[in-house]
Structure formats: structure tokens, C-alpha cells
Amino acid sequence: MKEFAYRRATDVDEALRLAAAGGDTRFLGGGTNLVDLMKNGVEAPERLIDVRFLPLGGISETSGGGMLLGATTTNSDIAAHPDIRRRYPALSQAILAGASGQLRNMATAAGNLLQRTRCGYFADPSEPCNRRAPGSGCGALAGEHHNHAILDWSPSCVATHPSDMAVALAAFDAHVRYQTMEGAGALPLSRFYLPVGDSPHEETALPGHALITGIALPSVTPTLRSRYRKVRERASYAFATVSVAAALEVLEGRILDVRIALGGVASQPWRARVAEDMVRDAAADAELFRAAADAELSAARPLRDNAYKVTLARNLITTVLTELAASERL
Amino acid sequence: MVDDMHSEITLFVNGKTTSLEVDNRRTLLDAVREDLGYTGPKKGCDHGQCGACTVMLNGRRIVSCLTLAVAAQDAEIVTIEGIAEGDALAPLQEAFVRLDSYQCGFCTPGQICSALAMLSEHAEGWPSAVTADVSPDAPTPELDAAEVRERLSGNLCRCGAYPSIVRATLEMAARKGISS
Fold it and tell me: Domain FAD-binding PCMH-type spans what residues (chain A) (predicted)?
């Protein structure tokens, strides 16, 4: 690991000043991904600014009836929060489906969003990777890619985003709030991650030296049911092969509201808007759900070894929507 | 002389306060083992994947191999050496011995720290990935074998002593009155 300077910021302004002071700087949250990548030589910052002691923790109600997750709130605290479990159960389930108890106790909300892909070529500096070393090529495209993207990849990069939490946030139309020296801003999650294109090393739309301050969840109607289902290669403590965060509001058999987001299939959480449009205002029906999933996945371009994900995603979408529609009738 | 790459820190480990100078790269795991002499936490993978280095930080289980010592200053840290009073084994340690919950023992300090903290998390009503209904209005799930396996999945045992680890943990849970 390369030597680095460490500073503990005590307020947001100080953190922003330190970050803008020059040099290759990273904000340190829980460190579960960043410290690991520093050990591997993937990340080699000159300075770490510890932001965990900023007054950005906690979970609160927003004026619009939604909720605000402070940037430094641990993943554990979000998943265990009674209002999150009651109103956004898919978010609680998504977080609980990720990592381990120890890592969830360390990892922060903002750090979860900013974690890097778990593609093996990215994690190994002896391999080519356009995301880590722009212009060096993509080892996964013709190499080991059974757990890589099926949607929206580019010849530059076929890696997936590893977060479970972000998939649920995409379904709930969350906004990422940030601050720069110039002031505060916000990005909807749907525009937070950049399309992979030919510059996969540019991962988010955050302005330079921006500090994430929180994640805002819009209000939801009490009748919106949500669920997160994740398929992975072992029963626990593994990244998603395919995951689905879905929310459904059904009144007398008719679908009033639907949100579907997929994990493990693209470089960012994949909001399945084609499927949503087919299902919204229709009668809840498993065959319709299957047809909607098929329509969504007609855009899939599986790689040599991951076409199974298309079938898996279709079945997961169908199953989760069917389960949610059934729970509505109880 | 401390430069930008080193820090003077104070660590609170197992009720004792130690001031030391560390390279900012030093992990909490290396600091407690090499600088403070607590060799209970083990370095297995050193990448947060095996759980052998699990300790408690401000009452919560964490992996010390991905925690920088400089970032852990001022926190209250408890290692396996800090969970028993004197020479008497803590009840969960005693259960691990009696029920053969290990073979080589390398993962055991992490398993026990993790299990103790997990019991506290459960007592606080935290759901898990195998909890059928995460609603706070639903009763907190009883700790059965499936719940224990899921909640302890961050601790690997290469000897495969899992059945006995689950048994000892369930016995401890029963003593606390949170399992059938």
C-alpha cells in the first residue's frame, strides 16, 4: 500500500476544503471497499479525509413526507430502522442481502453508492481494465465473464455495479444529495451513475470534490408493497447474480403503481421502465408479468457465458411481481 | 517526529488505553496484534472476507483488517481477550469448548466475537436476510439455525465446524431467552 496522509474532518466545509486542496484525495467512510482496494494497489490516494465524524449520520423524516438517510449512517442502521422496514421494506431487505454483519456495521450509505465493481479484472492490477487503467482494454469481454452485464455494456467494460442497496433506491426514485464549495445539489439515482460508454472510469455524475451528504427517499403511499429478491452463487455473503427490487400498488386487481429495478445485470441499477409501462394500469396477472419481463429483456445482449441471466431475470421479475400482487389480495 | 504519513493515536482496547505512533497504513488488526500484543484476532484473508479478525468497536462487530488504526482512535474496542472476566471463560467460550465448536481454532476468536455481537443485534430487534417479514410490527424472529447461519455468514471456518458453532450459539441464545 502506498503511503498516505490522514485527516479527520470535523465539519462539511472543512472536508470540502481539504478535498479541494490538491493531490489525489479520497473521502474515507467505512473503508470496507476503499481500504481493500488500497491493499490491492487499485486505489493509491495521497490523502484520506475521514468523513465518518461529520454531522451527517442518522435517519430523519423530510418535509415532503419522505425520509433522509444521512451519508454516514451505517448500512446496518438503515436496514434496522423501523420506518425503513415499514415503508421501504425492499430497501431493508436489499441491504440485509448484501455483505456480512460486520461489513454492514462499517459501511456507510454514501460509501455503498460509491463502491466499485467486483469484476476480477478491475481488482487485479496485473490485468487489463479500462475502468481501472483507461485504454488498457477489457479482460472480461473475452475472458471470465459469467457474472457480468447483459444490458447496456460497452466493448470498453462489461462489469456490473455490486450494490444491492442502490437497486432498491432506484426502485424508490431516491435522490443523492451532495455539497461542493459552490453549494448544495442533488441527483436522481437514475442519473447518478454515468452510462458506461467508452469511459467506464468516469462512474458518477457527481461534480469534482463533491461530498455526498445524504440520500433522500420520496414519500410512498402506505399501500405500496415492495420486496427485494436476490439470486447468488451461495446462500449468503455473495454478490448478486441477478436481483430484483420491485414495488407494486394494486387496487381491486388493477395495478396503480409499479417500480422494477434489476441488480447484477448492468453497470448500474437497471430500472425496467419498458416492463413497468406494460404493467401499469393493467390487471395483475402472472402472464402479463412474464410478457413484460420478456419485453424488458429483449434489449439484453448476453456475453458468451452469461445468457442464463436473461432467463433468471425474467423468472425473478415474474415471481416477485406475482408475489407482490398476491400479498395485495390478503 | 511525526510526518503526514504517520499519526500519534490513542487506542482503547479491552479497557486499557495506549498511546502510540502508527504509520497511517497500519490496520487496527495489525495494531492490536503487533503493537498491543492482543493476538486473539487473527489475520486470515486480510481482505474482509473471512471474519477471523472480528472485534467489537463501540459495541458492534467489525472486521479489523479493513479498519485503519488511525480511524479507530477514540473508539472502544473489545477483542476476544476482553470478553471474559479474569481466567473464567465467558459462557459462549465455555459452550464452544464443551460442544467442540472448532477444530484448528484459528477462526474461533472471530466466531465468538461475531456471535456475541450478533446476539445483541438480535436483541435489538434487527431482522436478517432470512427473516420472512422485516416489518417492525412483526415479532422479532426467533433465533433458529437458519437465522444463526445467515447472521454469522461473515465468519468462515475452514475446518467446517459450523454445526457445532450454530449449536453453541443457539445454546447461548436460549440462555438469554431469545430462542425456543
Answer: 1-222
